[in-house]
């Protein structure tokens, strides 16, 4: 630290800096030499940044504000919500930093700190994804040259998959028995189509081709439209579902309202019914039964909307070895 940039007056430390030929003196508001040096260091770093880039440094708070205004509105509502939760979790670690101060060491420190709070690897990975999104925008704005969150080796925080335990038909029947009629229909529809929860709760009548018994999904997780054919059981659910005169949604409650936060509602209903499985397990149930009934794994991958059949292959472990080998061989 350049001590010539420090001087004391009345016991308080001041900074003495020359900028564009002008002598600038400002109070560091401390009587502690160590603290004064740290505060002076930040001021000098700000000046160096201004000289090199031609603009002032940008804070993490400033970056997230611009990111929310320019990027966040372009993503799906569910993704937006997940990003905002992660940004909130990151604030204690990044809120006081400038964007150019964030390094791989910063990322590693956040991971260690999050692990101490018992956050799962899956949650930490989501936090890094949100952080990477903000930093990618910073790179595009020329606020920094790299993205340490994107470059960080995430193999050290591998996501541990919870073993799949698909519900039995009796458990599904027991759950439907205590549900309101509309939710019971939605549960059965999920079980017989393998659709994702958000795809089903947001399903509108205009998405259904009644003559062909097909559903066209335009709003999907992978942003790839797909068509799902309805078998007799799935069609029977749709056929018996009453329409609301003022609502476009197939599955509705109240005055034609769409279901929101359905996973939480589902969890409360399973607890009441005395069964233990998640809404997403209905999708697993469909996939495993499809393969056990001799279905083609590549066709299943298309039905489920997986970006790669490699994802679908996780279900091969739930059919007998001979069938699994045949199914895997049919995809080669």
From TrEMBL:
Domain Tyr recombinase: 162-329
PROSITE patterns the record matches: CB, TYR_RECOMBINASE
Phosphoprotein listed as a keyword: no
SUPFAM superfamilies for the chain: DNA breaking-rejoining enzymes
GO MF annotation, one: DNA binding
Secretion signal, residue range per the UniProt entry: none
Pfam families (alphabetical): Phage_integrase
GO BP field: DNA integration; DNA recombination
Keywords, alphabetical: DNA recombination, DNA-binding
KW Oxidoreductase (keyword) present: no
Gene3D superfamilies reported in the protein's UniProt record: 1.10.150.130, Intergrase catalytic core
Location of the Core-binding (CB) domain: 62-139
Family designation: Belongs to the 'phage' integrase family.
Protein name, as recorded: Tyr recombinase domain-containing protein
Originating organism: marine sediment metagenome
